[in-house]
Write a structure and sequence with these properties.
The complex is a heterodimer.
Chain A lengths: L8 H4 L4 H11 L5 H10 L2 H4 L4 H4 L9 E3 L6 E4 L4 E9 L1 H6 L1 H17 L4 E11 L5 H21 L3 E8 L8 E11 L14 E6 L9 H5 L7 H5 L10 H16 L5 E4 L4 H12 L3 E5 L12 H6 L5 E6 L4 H10 L4 E8 L3 E6 L11 H4 L6 E7 H6 L14 H5 L11 H7 L5 H4 L10 E3 L6 E6 L6 E12 L1 H6 L1 H17 L4 E10 L6 H21 L3 E7 L3 E2 L2 E2 L3 E10 L16 E5 L13 H4 L14 H15 L9 E7 L3 H13 L3 E3 L5 H5 L5 E6 L4 H10 L4 E7 L3 E4 L3 E4 H16 L7
Parallel strand pairs in A: 4-5, 9-12, 17-18, 24-27
Antiparallel strand pairs in A: 1-2, 2-3, 3-6, 4-6, 7-10, 7-11, 8-10, 9-11, 12-13, 14-15, 15-16, 16-21, 17-21, 19-20, 22-25, 22-26, 23-25, 24-26, 27-28
Helix pairs in contact in A: 7-8, 7-11, 8-11, 11-14, 21-22, 21-24, 25-28
Chain B lengths: L3 E6 L6 H10 L3 E6 L10 E4 L20 H10 L4 E4 L1 H8 L6 E3 L7 E9 L15 E8 L3 E3 L2 H9 L3 E5 L10 E5 L5 E4 L16 H22 L1
Parallel strand pairs in B: 1-2, 1-3, 3-4, 4-11
Antiparallel strand pairs in B: 5-8, 6-7, 6-9, 9-10, 10-11
The chains are: A alpha+beta, B alpha/beta.
């Protein structure tokens, strides 16, 4: 008879043998099945950051404006006028690969809860999206589904989606990236943290009932790569289903009970469900908690305690409430038609206990519950709350440069011939409005610069009084896997430089950064090297621009069939526009105005290394990434910002401003031409390198002739290179003797790219 | 006392504060009325704001019509008071039979958010009394179910009675006869899919919505004066 070995429970739950031993040591005994299930979700890569935490510590995270830094539900910044801003970014990559609509929808739902659990009203969402190539029907299916999911959930829940990115590339064929950033505002004094303080306080579960959906989502789904589609289909039940109407009522109910000061703390239920919410609030509050599993409303009968404790059913929040406020809390919940149940009691034991039996005796809080007695209840689990929350083993996983790195760096993409620069340019243009016209991007009357621009600019109004501050908030998200595939360190630094320049062209100065680190399998030493290098690259740029990192998310195991995605660290940067009297010009042109290119050209490395052009011409991953001079980039960004704000010559003298990024100068100029419907004539171009090099830290300004002198002097005084490259006007795009296209052809390529490709239909994989 | 506008909020409504902000920026007072209320707080005009009342579950507006506040809205309408339904509010008004027809999914089956051009077809409505016939206004839309439809007879009636208040210049959703907004027979109840409150601030790309909201405030003030004179 064959020896059919049964896999030990802990391995089936995603825990290693060593981790199992650690748990035994913590408890001084064997964990039971429920306890093991709780450890498996809390110690998952997704919840514990066990492979990345030692690296994340290297981010600079302090600055005077920082009210809450990394490690809480969201970063919080003081933006003046009594207003605090909460910001966070998350990934929902794996759920979206399996079930695009619900994966993306619940990603939006989850990030909103992170924001309103801090007391802030969510006012804006950004979605950086990365899919496989448009030629692939399955990638189109994923793209359509993800965009519909964000649209369906985000519009209905009533939070505008004001921007993001849309990238199509073969590296994401088997593993799309769906990142989501949310911004919220609150009166500074309302800031609340998810803490369970006060022995005898009650844990009130608000929102949806608990079902069997999403069990083990963080451990089974988010913390492993993809293999073949049949096995992946079996993971579909691990994806949750969202209900935006429930979430909308939950937002209103929670914000009301926080503004009435009826809750000590509020915590969202996301990955790892109620296990995470109870252990985190208890551990952070230095307390313990008794959770009565029978008191948790369930969607179906006979759910096992481990299912209830690890379910990731959406639209649930946990409020910590003083017993005397309970009636008021329940009244608010009733008004918003939100279910509310007392499911636990804060104790002073430091233990998270799961109990089966009659729930907490309300109104009798100083008898049994506070002291940790159980009455008639049976103890199903009894573990130190801190051990779940932050005692997962931290791994300093092996890091190693990829073996082919030196070989790739030795080959310069600059040597590749360019046969048809005009055709290459057209192939790089894509209007993303197909995506963002499906999102409500105008709600709350804040959106001054809508999606599709370098950054999105919002009016800054006081969340309670509605008073307009006359200032604005600016948001950008940026990632560039092609740059980071060549050099994850310089690529990450360059990514942030692009973010800062995106803000500058809209008149904003950066005040905080959050990041979403999307990488492959951390058990591959090359992936850990990429991650570590990217962290340092982001860190260097943050130091140079004196911008703090206030939060982040790490998404690992982005791989399919053993192949890791290109490293994709994504930055979300928040900026402030100090005077928002009229919208910044954006990528506009005016007939006869002059075009200035500001910023340093590449001073070292290969001009085309990491560029989109190289990637499509056999030069992907090759060469030395251009050297990024961070202090020079900062000088340039600051000089551009003051020029755009009209601090140099009268406001309006800069009629257009656009940063040079993906696709290089050629794409920047083409986008300006398309946006304004005006042609461009650039006199001399040294070669296709000059057109398609993506050296960051540069921008194109369109300036009325009479102001050119003043602006040149301004940039010269700031020690920023500035060059007149041509003039706007006419109905052609002429770039030296390399490109000569009719404006109409450029407009059509730009406008048609996405709708034409997506009209080709989709297929479910 | 300033002219006062009640803005109806159902669970799931999300544009109520936007309407309040825009109305107040034009000098009138505005207050939110929750769906469980049976009165409108003495308001001179009512706006049913956009969003997803009751999650749009079943059908947009299908559940909202049973909310207690709708009796108060109907009473106000019956007395000749101005009532405007914007976007989801328009859907609520058709479901409540205060306006004829229905709003189905957009042609193209996609949600659409963005600016559209509207042509003012009738100035005999609380929302367009301050416009000139043929005026073209730049106002955003934001909907999945904005494709207006009605029977041949109703369409003939709407045309005959000059009750098509607004038409799209470039139809974004497949609406019959390019209809963007209509009014009832007594002309005091108007429904439209576009959002005038989103075009009432210079920083937001258009101020063409102001003339609509000013028309509404003016009509409300006149109806109050008339009501006071007759009582």
């Amino acid at each position: 008879m064959a020896n059919t070995s049964v896999e030990p429970t802990h391995r089936a739950l995603g825990l290693t043998d060593d981790e199992y031993e650690e748990i035994r040591e913590r408890l001084g005994r064997d964990p039971n099945h429920l306890e093991l299930a709780m450890y498996s979700v809390m110690w998952s890569e997704h919840c514990s950051y066990k492979s990345s935490r030692i690296h994340l510590k290297r981010f600079p995270s302090t600055a005077p404006q920082v009210l809450v830094g990394p490690g809480e539900g969201a970063g919080v910044l003081d933006v003046g006028d009594g207003i605090a801003v909460a910001i966070r970014i998350e990934s929902h990559n794996h759920p979206s690969a399996i079930e695009p609509y619900q994966g993306a929808a619940t990603g939006v739902g989850g990030i909103l809860r992170d924001i309103f659990s801090m007391g802030a009203r969510p006012i804006a969402v950004m979605d950086p999206l990365r899919f496989g190539p448009l030629e692939d029907p399955r990638s189109r299916w994923i793209a359509e589904g993800v965009v519909s999911g964000i649209s369906g959930y985000g519009n209905s829940v009533g939070v505008p989606t004001v921007g993001g990115e849309t990238v199509f590339d073969p590296t994401y064929s088997g593993n799309p990236l769906v990142n989501v950033l949310c911004l919220g505002v609150m009166p500074t004094e309302r800031l609340v943290l998810g803490r369970a303080e006060g022995v005898g306080n009650l844990a009130v579960l608000l929102g949806s009932s608990t079902g069997r959906d999403g069990i083990g989502g963080v451990s089974v789904l988010a913390s492993a790569g993809f293999s073949d589609s049949e096995a992946d289909a079996e993971k579909r039940p691990s994806v949750q289903v969202g209900d935006p109407f429930e979430e909308k009522r939950l937002i209103e109910a929670c914000l009301e009970l926080l503004s009435e000061e009826l809750a000590v703390g509020v915590q969202d239920l996301g990955g790892a469900g109620i296990t995470c919410a109870t252990s985190e609030t208890a551990a952070k509050g230095g307390a313990g908690m008794d959770v009565y599993v029978d008191a948790i409303p369930t969607r179906e009968p006979a759910m096992e305690p481990f299912e209830v404790m690890t379910s990731e059913s959406q639209e649930r929040m946990l409020a910590i409430v003083e017993p005397s406020n309970l009636d008021a809390v329940l009244a608010i919940a009733r008004r918003w038609e939100v279910n509310a149940s007392v499911v636990g009691v804060v104790t002073d034991t430091g233990q998270l206990r799961v109990l089966d039996g009659p729930g907490p005796q309300l109104g009798d809080t100083d008898s049994g519950a506070a002291g940790g007695a159980t009455g008639n209840a049976t103890v199903l689990a009894d573990v130190p709350a801190v051990s779940l929350e932050n005692e997962a083993p931290l791994y300093d996983r092996e890091r190693r440069e990829p073996e082919d790195l030196e070989h790739r760096r030795a080959q310069s993409p600059d040597d590749i011939e360019c046969a048809d620069p005009a055709a290459d340019l057209l192939s790089m243009l894509a209007d993303t409005s197909w995506v963002w016209s499906q999102y409500d991007h105008m709600l709350f009357l804040n959106t001054v610069t809508p999606p599709g621009a370098d950054a999105s600019v919002l009016r800054l109004k006081h969340p309670d009084t509605g008073v307009d501050t006359g200032r604005g908030l600016a948001l950008t998200t940026d990632g560039n896997h092609l740059w980071c595939a060549v050099d994850p360190r310089a690529g990450a630094a360059a990514t942030l430089v692009e973010s800062f320049m995106n803000l500058a062209v809209l008149g904003a100065r950066p005040i905080a950064m959050v990041n979403c680190l999307n990488f492959g399998n951390p058990e591959h030493p090359e992936v850990m090297w990429q991650l570590s290098e990217s962290v340092d690259g982001f860190g260097e740029a943050l130091e140079a621009f004196e911008v703090p990192c206030v939060g982040g998310n790490v998404s690992l195991y982005n791989e399919s069939l053993g192949t890791d995605i290109d490293p994709t660290p994504v930055a979300g940067v928040l900026g402030v526009v100090d005077r928002l009297e009229r919208p910044a010009p954006g990528p506009q042109l005016e007939t006869d105005a002059e075009l200035l290119l500001v910023g340093s050209p590449a001073t070292g490395g290969d001009a085309l290394s990491g560029s989109t052009w190289a990637a499509t011409h056999g030069g992907r991953g090759l060469g030395q990434f251009p050297v990024v001079d961070l202090p020079a980039a900062r000088r340039c960004a600051e000089a551009v910002r003051s020029a755009v704000l009209g601090e140099v010559a009268p406001q309006g003298s800069v009629v257009g401003a656009h940063d040079v990024a993906s696709g290089g100068l050629a794409v920047a100029l083409a986008e300006m031409a398309v946006t304004s419907g005006i042609g461009v004539r650039v006199g001399e171009v040294g070669g296709h390198h000059e057109l398609f090099s993506e050296t960051p830290g540069r921008a194109v300004l369109c300036v009325g002739s009479e102001h050119v002198g003043a602006l040149e002097a301004h940039f010269a005084a700031a020690d920023v290179p500035v060059r007149r490259i041509g003039r706007a006007g006419g109905d052609r795009l002429v770039l030296g003797d390399l490109v000569d296209l009719s404006l109409q052809a450029v407009v059509e390529s730009h406008r048609g790219a996405l709708p034409d490709a997506l009209a080709g239909g989709t297929t479910q994989g | 006392m300033a002219t006062s506008v009640a803005v109806v909020q159902f669970p799931g409504t999300n544009c109520e504060m936007d309407v309040v902000e825009a109305v107040e920026s034009l000098g009138a007072s505005a207050h939110v009325v929750f769906h469980d209320s049976t009165t409108l707080g003495g308001a001179d005009a009512v706006v049913i704001a956009g969003g997803f009342a009751h999650g749009d579950y079943l059908r947009p507006g299908a559940i909202a019509r049973f909310s207690p506040v709708m009796s108060a809205v109907e009473d106000h309408a019956r007395r000749g008071g101005p009532v405007v339904g914007i976007c989801n509010g328009f859907q609520v008004l058709t479901e409540s039979h205060l306006l004829p027809g229905a709003l189905q999914k957009n042609a193209g089956l996609k949600f659409r958010c963005g600016f559209t051009q509207l042509r003012v077809e009738s100035t005999d409505s609380p929302l367009t009394s301050g416009c000139a016939p043929g005026d073209v206004l730049r106002i955003p839309i934001n909907h999945f179910e904005g494709n207006y439809t009605c029977s041949e007879e109703v369409l003939a009636e709407l045309r005959e009675q000059d009750r098509i208040v607004l038409r799209y210049v470039d139809n974004p959703n497949g609406s019959v006869d390019d209809i963007a907004g209509i009014c009832n027979e007594s002309r005091n109840v108007v429904g439209l899919m576009p959002h005038p409150e989103r075009a009432a601030h210079a920083l937001l790309g258009s101020t063409d919505g102001r003339v609509m909201l000013e028309s509404l405030i003016g009509t409300a003030a006149r109806s109050r004066t008339a009501a006071a004179a007759s009582s």
